């Protein structure tokens, strides 16, 4: 029975290490922030998830429930996409361009905290619709 536990824990550790390696390579190789943002978000979610599954299996084999591991998994799966979204919104706010080309609909779009730009944005689009 211990051999099955060791094999399954080793499997999830190798899978987690693979995702972390791919995320690290993506951080180094991808050219700009918008492309580079995707690599650590996915790798941290999938890699850390695999590591925590391995820890849960190990804890279950030794008679513990693994509540701490479940809590860490929940927090990691919630915070990684939220932090990536905030970083992307900050990059849009700073008007950083992607090396893949300009994205005009995101550059002209007002951010939620910019009320004056939002009013001007809606007024400009209403004037455009009225001209048609």
UniProtKB/TrEMBL annotation:
Signal peptide: none
Keyword Metal-binding in record: no
InterPro entries the UniProt entry points to: PhaG_MnhG_YufB (IPR005133)
Keywords assigned: Membrane, Transmembrane, Transmembrane helix
GO MF annotation terms: sodium:proton antiporter activity
Lineage top rank: taxon: Bacteria
Pfam family, any one: PhaG_MnhG_YufB
UniProt protein name: Na+/H+ antiporter subunit G
Source organism: Acinetobacter celticus
């Amino acid at each position: 029975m211990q051999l099955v536990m060791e094999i399954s824990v080793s499997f999830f550790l190798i899978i987690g290490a693979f995702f972390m390696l791919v995320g690290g390579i993506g951080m180094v190789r991808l050219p700009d922030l918008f492309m580079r943002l995707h690599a650590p978000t996915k790798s941290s979610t999938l890699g850390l998830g695999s590591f925590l599954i391995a820890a849960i299996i190990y804890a279950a084999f030794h008679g513990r429930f693994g509540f701490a591991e479940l809590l860490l998994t929940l927090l990691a799966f919630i915070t990684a996409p939220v932090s990536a979204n905030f970083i992307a919104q900050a990059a849009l706010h700073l008007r950083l361009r992607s090396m893949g080309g300009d994205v005009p609909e995101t550059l002209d779009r007002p951010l939620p905290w910019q009320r004056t730009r939002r009013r001007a944005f809606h007024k400009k689009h209403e004037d455009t619709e009225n001209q048609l």
